[in-house]
Each structure stands twice: as structure tokens, then as C-alpha cells.
Design a protein that fits this description.
mainly alpha
């Protein structure tokens, strides 16, 4: 039983769920087989690791049925029943956790049984529970929320019209139309954006026909603004929600014009408190995406990255939708604090969020890298180098970042011999990584080459100062987006201060 899926399911249970599952199994409504209850009583002793050799099928059998000959078929059936019940339990918990979904099924069941009086009583509940004021508080994806609401209102309209032909339904009809339009647009946008992401990762000759884009274009090109204006009059919250996705689509399909990006960003930042959590996460991810892939040179990508990471921090959306933090995402936060030269704030952040980091091969390496960065920011370069040298990395992205950082340490230590060694090793990684042949990694390839070229120029100028070359490199760094840009600018300033060189005209000292 050690390798069965049911143990993986139970391993995911919280302490409370371990207890609740026992009650679930002992309920005659869910289970009438005593062998399953006995099996659970035995295996829960080994929660949460489930690695003990006593979890072998034959050893478990001897505990369940002492003195009886091992029955392979019987044991197989018990484990099968046990697995099905564990699956039913987690599905039931998910069902019960979604109040709107539960109410939708209840409402459908009442309508099917023609329990008219009960349905009428539920109408009061609908108007209070699902008013516009509650829209911003929903926890589920907005398209799922609208799906349930349209189902409920559809049943209500048809049911009421059948049993009372004197009623008018203008208000309900407006509700259902607004919900349906919003649901249709948001779902189409999600399909469009997902399809776009997949097509970027799997490019084929002839390109990819995005049917969702054609559908959305047809909507937008036929006076969609009028629909938005009408919804705005009837419901501010519905308008904010729908307009967020509308602006996201417009911005994403106009990557050559920064105007649309800034319209979306400004609307998001102005209405952040009015958006439900799922929509907020959708739109802020789009803003982050567009700032990175925009083709308009007007967008300062480093500055936008900086601002948007602060936005996430200020609005408590650091963790992902599952309340976790990917170790590679943590690197972005470390980079943000490094840009701002805030070592103490970085420590507070790492201490606060390290328990949420997903357990993967690079979790410990990432946390040690954070320690190395904080030591670097305190100018303890030898200790920072010592920390970096003792952890292993599996991720190519993290490995690339750590190599860049190592070069910066050797620059600070003024150790050109070791700098050259690490530089050559990094160039080898770049040349033979295949990044330049993959559409999803060519950006990393070019950015890494740019970093390597720039830091080597910097080190040579540190050793042998040439005024014109220093000013040229300063202008070059100031005018482009490069990893660890603020550090490069500080190092240029140090060289200039040492040699008494004045800043060239047009150079932005405070550029990120």
C-alpha cells in the first residue's frame, strides 16, 4: 500500500481533516464497510510520512484480520473502496467550501421538485447575498461566480413566469443580461490569453489562429463601449470588473502603443479595492506581462517592474492563488530589495514568507542566496562568497542569476583572476545552453550576454580609467534595461568620484 494514490491524498490532509475523514468513514450514509474503517484506523498511525514498512499489504492484513490467510483479492477491493471514499471526501469538502455552488444546486433541486413556496423564500436570500456590493468580496474565479448567478437567475425567471404571468421581470432580465455579457467576455478573454501563452511556447509555421481573439474583436468592433456605458449606469462594481478585462484585452493586443498599457495600469491601481481577488490577480498578472513584452520603447521596463512589485506587496498579493510562493518568484523579490538597497527590509520579507515557499529542489538554495545577497549589501563579500559556494542549484534560471552575482562579488573584491574564471564559465553556459534557439528563453540569453559584456567593461575601466570610455559606458547603462542596473550605476559613480570625472549631460543618475 506504500505506493498507492490514497496515501498521497491522506498525506495532504490537515490535522482536522484527519479527524473529519474518520467521521466521514464511520457515517453509514457514506460507508457501510467495516474493513475500510479498520484499514484507516491502522494506517493513520503513520501519518503524515507513510513510509513505515508496516504499511505493506500483507502486514496490514495481519492487523485487520489476525490469524486469517492473506486474501489478495479482498485486500485489493478494500484499498479500492478506501481510495474512492478518500476521493469523495476531498470532493465533498471542496463542494461544501463553495457556498454559491452549493446554493445553485439547492436552487435547481427545489425548482425540479416544484417547491414553489421555498423558492419564493430563497428569492430574498438571492437579493441580499448576491448584490453588487458583495461582488468585490467573492473568493472564486469571477467567471465561475457569473456562471452560478446566471444559472440561478435563469431558473428564477422561467419558474416565476410559469407560475405567475402577472409579474414583470425587467430587473431580473437586466441582471441576467449583465451577468451573461460579463461572463461571456471574461471567459473569452481567459481563453484568448491562455491560447496566446501556449502559442508562444509552441510556435509552429504559419502561426496560430486564435478564435477567441476573433470573437472578442467582433464584440469590441460593434459598439462594445455602449454596453460598458449601460452597465456602468446600473452597476459601478460590474462596470469596474468588466472594464478591467476589456482594458486588459485592448492593452495586450496593442503592444506597440504604451498608451493602452498605462490606461490598464492606472485603472487597476485606482480600482484595486473594488475588484474581487481572482480578478485582481488576473489583471495584475496581465499588467506585469505587458510591461515585460511591450514593444513600445516608451516603457521603462525596469521602473515598471519595480513599481508593480511594490503594488503587489502593498496589496497583499505576494503569494500565489494557492497561498504559496515559488522559489524563483522569491528571487524577483530579492532583486527588488537589492535595487532599493534595503537589506533589513529584505530580511523581514524573507522571515515572513519563507514558510510559504513551495518545497522544491531549490528552496534551500534560494534562501541561502538571500543570505548571500544580504551579506553583500553589508559589504561582507567574503562571507557572501562562502555562502554561495556551499549550495547546489538545479534551476538554470537561478544558476544564471547566482553566476551574475558571483561576478559582482569578485568585482567588489577586486579579484580579476577569479572574475575571469567565473566569466568564462558563465559564457560557456550561455553559448551551450540553447537559450538563443528557444523563443521562450531568447530574452534571457540576450539579457545575460548584455550583463556579461557590461560587467567586463566595468572591471577593465576600474583597473585602468579612461574618461571617454567611462562616460560612454555610463550613458550606455543609463539608457537601457540591464540586470542589477542600480548596482552598475553606483559602481560607475564610484569610479568617477575616485578619478574626479563629472557626469556627462543627459545621464540620469537615479535611473533604476
Amino acid at each position: 500500500m506504500l505506493k498507492t494514490s490514497v496515501l498521497k491524498i491522506i498525506q495532504s490532509f490537515s490535522d482536522k481533516e484527519i479527524s473529519d475523514f474518520e467521521d466521514f468513514l464511520k457515517s453509514p450514509y457514506h460507508n457501510k464497510k467495516t474493513g475500510v474503517v479498520k484499514l484507516y484506523d491502522e494506517i493513520k498511525k503513520y501519518y503524515p510520512d507513510f513510509t513505515n514498512e508496516n504499511l505493506g499489504n500483507e502486514k496490514l492484513w495481519s492487523k485487520l484480520y489476525p490469524g486469517k490467510k492473506y486474501g489478495y483479492g479482498v485486500m485489493k477491493n478494500i484499498i479500492h473502496d478506501f481510495t474512492k471514499l478518500a476521493e469523495e471526501f476531498i470532493a465533498h469538502r471542496l463542494y461544501k467550501s463553495n457556498e454559491l455552488q452549493e446554493f445553485t444546486f439547492l436552487y435547481k433541486a427545489l425548482a425540479e421538485r416544484e417547491l414553489n413556496t421555498v423558492l419564493d423564500n430563497k428569492a430574498v436570500y438571492i437579493s441580499k447575498k448576491f448584490s453588487d456590493d458583495t461582488l468585490k468580496d467573492i473568493k472564486m474565479p469571477v467567471q465561475e461566480y457569473y456562471h452560478h448567478l446566471t444559472t440561478i437567475f435563469d431558473i428564477k425567471i422561467w419558474h416565476d413566469s410559469f407560475y405567475d404571468t402577472e409579474l414583470t421581470y425587467d430587473n431580473e432580465q437586466t441582471h441576467i443580461e449583465d451577468y451573461q455579457i460579463s461572463k461571456m467576455f471574461i471567459e473569452a478573454f481567459v481563453i484568448y490569453y491562455s491560447s496566446y501563452a501556449l502559442s508562444r511556447n509552441t510556435k509552429k509555421e504559419g502561426g496560430h489562429i486564435n478564435n477567441a481573439k476573433e470573437f472578442l474583436d467582433n464584440l469590441i468592433n460593434n459598439d462594445f463601449d455602449k454596453i460598458l456605458a449601460r452597465i456602468r449606469k446600473s452597476s459601478k462594481n460590474k462596470y469596474i470588473l468588466l472594464n478591467s478585462y476589456y482594458l486588459a484585452y485592448i492593452a495586450h493586443t496593442n503592444l506597440n502603443d504604451a498608451k493602452y498599457y498605462y490606461q490598464l495600469k492606472d485603472f487597476l491601481y485606482s480600482n484595486v479595492k473594488s475588484l474581487p481577488e481572482s480578478a485582481l490577480r488576473d489583471i495584475e498578472e496581465i499588467v506585469d506581462c505587458i510591461s515585460g513584452i511591450s514593444l513600445d520603447p516608451e516603457i521603462n521596463k525596469e521602473k515598471e517592474f519595480h513599481e508593480h512589485m511594490l503594488f503587489r506587496h502593498q496589496n497583499d498579493i505576494v503569494l500565489n492563488r494557492n497561498g504559496r510562493l515559488n522559489s524563483l518568484v522569491l528571487i524577483q523579490w530579492l532583486y527588488l530589495f537589492f535595487l532599493e538597497n534595503k537589506s533589513s527590509e529584505m530580511k523581514v520579507f524573507v522571515d515572513q514568507y519563507q514558510k510559504y515557499i513551495i518545497e522544491d529542489d531549490d528552496k534551500n538554495a534560494t534562501l541561502q542566496f538571500a543570505e548571500a545577497i544580504m551579506l553583500f549589501m553589508k559589504s561582507d563579500y567574503m562571507k557572501s562568497l562562502e555562502v554561495i559556494s556551499r549550495f547546489k542549484i538545479s534551476s538554470q534560471i537561478l544558476k544564471n542569476t547566482v553566476k551574475k552575482f558571483t561576478l559582482m562579488i569578485y568585482y567588489e573584491l577586486n579579484d580579476y583572476e577569479m572574475f575571469e574564471y567565473i566569466y568564462d564559465s558563465h559564457m560557456h553556459l550561455v553559448r551551450y545552453s540553447g537559450w538563443d534557439k528557444n523563443s521562450t528563453t531568447i530574452f534571457r540569453y540576450n539579457r545575460t550576454k548584455d550583463f556579461l559584456s557590461t560587467i567586463k567593461k566595468l572591471f577593465k575601466l576600474k583597473e585602468k580609467s579612461v574618461v571617454d570610455e567611462i562616460l560612454l559606458l555610463e550613458k550606455e547603462i543609463s539608457g537601457k534595461s540591464i540586470d542589477f542596473k542600480s548596482w552598475f550605476i553606483r559602481k560607475i559613480e564610484e569610479i568617477k568620484f575616485r578619478d574626479g570625472i563629472e557626469t556627462a549631460q543627459g545621464i540620469q543618475r537615479a535611473a533604476l
